[in-house]
Amino acid sequence: MDDELKMLEEELGRLRPAAASPELTARIGRNLRPRRRAGVLLSWLALPAAAAAGAALVILAPKPAASAAPSVFKPVAARQVLLSARDEGYVQLGGVPAHRLHATYVDTITWENPAEHASLTWSVPRDQVRVIPASFQ
Fold this sequence. Notes:
Structural class: alpha+beta
Radius of gyration: 28 Å
Strand content: 35-45%
Helix content: 25-40%
Order of helices and strands: HHHEEE
Distance between the termini: 46 Å
Strand order of the largest sheet: 1-2-3
Mean pLDDT: 78
Largest sheet: 3 strands, antiparallel
Number of domains: 2
Number of helices: 3
Number of strands: 3
Low-confidence stretches: none
């Protein structure tokens, strides 16, 4: 058996991949070129940066000299929005059958500073995977 495996390994070691056809090379080259979608991606990446900059301006902005109370933001609202949920079927959990569920949420928390009539909203995506032991009774 070992001799057969050694012969197979030697034969596989001698094999070399065939050269790619010119059509395949051209098609790969076309697919690797940047597309206009990069602008859309950059705009989506700019949103969190703008939100962080806005939050920093609200929190770090100089306070009026007459204000005796410190600037304090307090959480006033929190919510989670379920974007998608899918059943990923049965899996083995330490030899025990279990059911796997995957959910995607967006958590949003709002803070307010009533003294300065300011508010800050923060949204964060979250994935949740639950594995529940299955009971077949």
